[in-house]
Structures are given as C-alpha cells and as structure tokens.
TrEMBL record:
UniProt keyword terms in alphabetical order: Signal
Protein name: Uncharacterized protein
Signal peptide: 1-41
Organism in which the protein naturally occurs: Kitasatospora putterlickiae
The UniProt record lists the keyword Signal: yes
Source species, domain of life: Bacteria
C-alpha cells in the first residue's frame, strides 16, 4: 500500500507545477487582453498606382471619425516614365455636394503624407502633379484614416 500512495503522489501535479501553470495562464490572459485594445486607425486600404497622370483620383473611403487617427497616404516603390521619380503632389478632398472640399497639397517623396484627423465623411486623394515625369507608378499605396 505504501507503493501505491507513492505512485499516486507522483501522478498528481506538484504544488509548484500547479502554481507555474496558473501563472502561465494568467500571463496569457493578460497578453490577450492587452492585444484587444483600441485600434490605432479606424480603417485602411492598400492598392497600387499604374500610369497615373495629373487629375487621377484614388478610390473613395468613408471616415466615420470614431477615433483621433490622422489621415495618411504612404507610397512605396515609386517610379515615373523616365525612372527619375522626385515627388508626387497629392491633394486630399472631401466628397461633398458641389465642389469637393480640398484639404491641402502634400509633396510625397515615396514616403508618408498626412492631413491630420478629419471629420466624418467620404474622402479621396488626387494626383495634382509629378515632378520628373508625366506618369506615376507606385508598387504599394496604403491609406489610413
């Protein structure tokens, strides 16, 4: 009977092991909770640009203004017809009845351009011009709002 009790004791987890398991479970729960925090931006989309000239417009997106995220457009992998890309002149617009409201030009050097936190509404950006080339190609365009 003495041997059976010893076997029973070794089959049960020790107090130290139970404490470790409990600690791991608590840590995992805390990490999951920390990861469930608010998103940094209400929304985003990714696309590309192929042969845009001045006046070309992006797709529209709806910003509900449920956060304080700034509106940004990021270009990666930029080129012009002569492969001498310098920058692209972008303008953010709010799609409204009548002439669309402009929010200012930004010179994008194949990086990120920002326009601050915008009010709710439908937005798009337009290519106003390209320095060193007539057409613009961008491998990845990421818009966050």
């Amino acid at each position: 009977m003495h041997a059976k009790n010893r076997a029973d004791r070794t089959d049960r987890p020790s107090r130290t092991n139970r404490t470790r398991v409990r600690g791991v479970l608590v840590a995992a729960a805390l990490l999951a909770f920390a990861g469930a925090g608010p998103a940094l931006a209400e929304g985003s989309w990714t696309s590309h640009i192929s042969g845009w000239g001045p006046g070309s417009e992006s797709r529209r997106w709806a910003d509900s203004d449920r956060d304080d995220a700034v509106t940004t457009v990021t270009f990666q992998g930029c080129a012009t017809g002569n492969n001498d890309f310098k920058d692209a002149d972008l303008q953010l617009y709010k799609d409204v009845f009548g002439p669309d409201k402009a929010y200012g030009h930004r010179s994008n050097h194949c990086d990120t351009s920002g326009w601050g936190d915008q009010s709710s509404g439908d937005y798009y950006f337009a290519l106003e011009g390209v320095r060193s080339g007539a057409k613009l190609w961008v491998d990845t365009v990421t818009t966050r709002y």
